[in-house]
Amino acid sequence: MPSHPDPLPPPPARRSRDADALVAYVETVGGIADRRRVRRRFTAGALRGALEDGRIRPVGRSGLASASAAADLVAARRVGGVLSHRSAAAWWGWPLLDPPAVPDVAVRRGTNVRALRRGCAVHWLSLRDGEVRDGATPPLRTVLDCAASLPFDQALAVADGALRSGLVEKGELVEAADTARGCGAGRRRRVAAAADGRAANPFESALRATLLDVPGLHLQPQFAIRGPRLPGGVDFAARVDLADPVRRIVVEADSFEYHGGRDGLRRDAVRYDELVARGWRVVRVTYDDLRGNPEWVRAVVQAVVDGLSAGD
């Protein structure tokens, strides 16, 4: 039998573009990404190229860090501190809603950083022995620090990511927040109570944070909906971003990353029609609308809830 030649590798220009896209993705999620997730999105050649030119570096057993994230660790050490808050969250591999413009660095109270503070957001904290791990605040402490200082949507995205990663457990987070005292204690308890590791990404976490105070609405992340086939269709199964199964309301975090192109458009239309045919009210929220006008997003969903209540 004739032998089949091995497939040719992509040309250098293609490999370079793929590596550029990989680096951009890692930067977008906060500078640290899970190696398995990167491998699912990008080719082995793209990863090899980014590693060989030094723009991506291995971190721990399964992490990949951008050069800027590694530089954050150097900046923290330069002022005698450790990565904290969002920089620590990124270091632990949790994607962020808004990556920090400069590295968040924690130093012990009383430390004088003077001019070296430039280029860092310095946080003076009471760091006990054992509250530093691999150059950063440990996972639980990181979540609590973010909860106390960040806007609720950003803090919830961090907490959801921590639970999703398995580095923090829901019970220990709630217990630690309940025993917290002083400034930010109430914020810690609110974030801990709302945190849910089922959330798929920071966009979804932020959307849930925006809608938590809508009266009469009780959303569950990544809710599975199944049903028998309609004539001419197939057995229906969908996992929606957020759903209230009692009121049969679905709220989707619409991202072009997942819905772009002709095939994606058709898939979305079929999914939407199938949900409506089964009695679900569907609200689709774009990232720009959520970040630019959250009050309007909340009002739209509230109007849907009120309309259903009026029909009871």
Helicity range of the residues?
A: 40-55%
Number of domains: 3
The proportion of residues in beta strands is: 15-25%
Give a short account of the largest sheet.
4 strands, mixed
Q: What value does the average pLDDT take?
A: 86
Give, in order, the helices and strands: HEHHEEHEHEEHHHHHEEEHHEHH
Determine the oligomeric state from the structure. Answer: single chain
Low-pLDDT segments: 1-6
- The total of helices stands at 14
**What gap, in angstroms, lies between the N and C termini?**
72 Å
Secondary structure: number of strands: 10
Radius of gyration: 22 Å
- Globally, the shape reads globular
**Alpha-beta content class:** alpha+beta
The largest beta-sheet arranges its strands as 7-8-9-10
Structure, described:
The chain has 312 residues and is α+β, with helices and mostly antiparallel strands. A four-stranded mixed β-sheet has the order 7-8-9-10, sandwiched between helices. A three-stranded antiparallel β-sheet has the order 1-3-2. The protein starts with 11 loop residues before the first helix and ends with a helix. Residues 1-6 have low confidence and may be disordered. It is globular and about 70 Å long. It has helices at residues 12-28, 35-41, 44-52, 67-78, 85-91, 139-149, 152-165, 170-178, 185-194, 202-211, 256-259, 261-277, 287-292, 294-310; strands at 32-34, 56-59, 63-66, 82-83, 104-108, 121-125, 220-227, 236-244, 249-254, 281-286. Strand 2 (56-59) and strand 3 form a beta hairpin.
